[in-house]
Amino acid sequence: MKEEQNKEMEALSKKLFKEVELQSPDSNFEFKVMEQISSLPIPGSMAKYKAPFSKWVIPITIITLIGSILLILLFGTGNQYDIMSKLPSFNFEAISSPLQRIPKTVIFAMLALAVLLFAQIPILKVTFKNRWH
Amino acid sequence: MTNQEDQFYITKILEGDSSYYTHLVNRYKNLVYSIVLRMLKNEDDAHEVAQDVFVKVYTSLASFKGDAKFSTWIYKIAYHKCLDALKKKKRNFDTVSIDATYEIGIDQVENGLGQLETAERKEIINKAILSLKEDYAAILTLYYFEELSLKEITKVVGGTLDNVKIKLYRGRKMLFGILKKQLDPETLAIYERGTK
User: Fold this and answer.
1) Inside any domain, residue B97
2) Residues B185 and B117 placed together within one structural domain of the fold
3) In whole angstroms, what is the distance from residue B173 CA to residue A111 CA?
4) Across the interface, do A5 and B106 touch by the CB < 8 Å criterion?
5) Averaged in consecutive runs of 10 residues, what is the pLDDT profile of chain B (196 residues)?
6) How many domains does chain A have?
7) ipTM
8) Mind listing the pLDDT tens digit for each residue in A40-65?
9) Chain A contacts to B (CB-CB under 8 A)
């Protein structure tokens, strides 16, 4: 009896489901999905660069920060970076005056930023490659 | 042919041409949206989650090994995204549970539906599917719309084959129970008078 009822239900279900169509999302659904994926990297491309990124960026950041602090300590705590007194054998007369006006913390910060950007080249490469596509 | 086409598009996307993804979205959007809507029972949530499904499919495309059908893989992601969304919202729907001893009256439902206009009938069937508990709704949709085998459905929803079989049986029974409840008593009475 149960088996028979099950068979009847199965047959009628098939009939019922044939009558109703699948629901469709909004007409701009596809556009929204494509817009979202346009900002994403090509699938699988990030995996290639993930390892060097996570492996090097953190150590390089730490080394850069420690190096900057050590350099500041070594060259004293004065407000200006006195390049003339540290390298006396070269004639820096011509270029020293603009350099002397830049606070040394700014110079070290720029150096640290340059090193960090250099470490992220693989990631930037992937990002730009995808944007250009 | 579909699987070969899917694989062709996947290869193109992995080679760097993401514009091919639109073909895959176009092919699967209706079924993914239908499963998601029937599980979440809300159009706004369904749109959002269906979009998330396609973004997730895109980002994970490199991990698709091709040992299962691409469609099965997408439905699996959709099913689990819905479960996550339901967990997040901690929603409890007023779903119908049907007692095992409940007399459904298949003939009654069939003939009751037969009395209705096509559009009305469609609406009632759609409403009944939406009233089902989320996993039953997903299993019935995959079985009847996508005509997936029980084995493939097991891959999508997890669990055992017997579990899916039981859910399919219960889902069908619930569906008929809901339909019987939804049908106008007068419509059912017309049929009953005719059989006497």
Assistant:
1) no
2) yes
3) 71
4) yes
5) 80 87 92 90 90 92 83 91 86 54 62 72 82 88 86 90 90 83 63 51
6) 1
7) 0.75
8) 888 876 555 454 555 666 777 777 77
9) 5-6, 8-10, 12-14, 16-17, 19-20, 22-26, 29-30, 32-34, 36-38, 40, 42-45, 47, 133
